[in-house]
User: Fold this.
Amino acid sequence: MVIRRHKQKPAKERKLALDRIDSLFSEAEKQFKEHPELSNRYVELARKIAMKSKVRIRSELKKRLCKHCHSYLKLGINCRVRLSQKHMSYYCLNCRKFMRFPYN
Ligand SMILES: [Zn+2]
Assistant:
């Protein structure tokens, strides 16, 4: 009998989705300077893949995606970071909202 964790997709499919997400983020990074709207589309696509395949976007990549307006965030350009004792606050200059991340 095969025991699979609840609602999880097969490992192969998840691995594929994660690879896809990684490459979309690196493509977004490449395009950002000249075509920021393209970057936004790439990360939006990455987000959809993550949802569909029920995988988590790596925390490192999550910081580059605004959870409110879903735009691609580039430090110093459309995103500011503030540090407090308990967490880092990422401020998105597009929608003017904060995201908080605890320290690792
Ligand atoms: Zn935003």
The chain has a mean pLDDT of 93. The CA atoms of residues 17 and 78 lie 27 Å apart. The beta strands are 79-83, 87-92, 97-102. The chain has three helices and three strands.
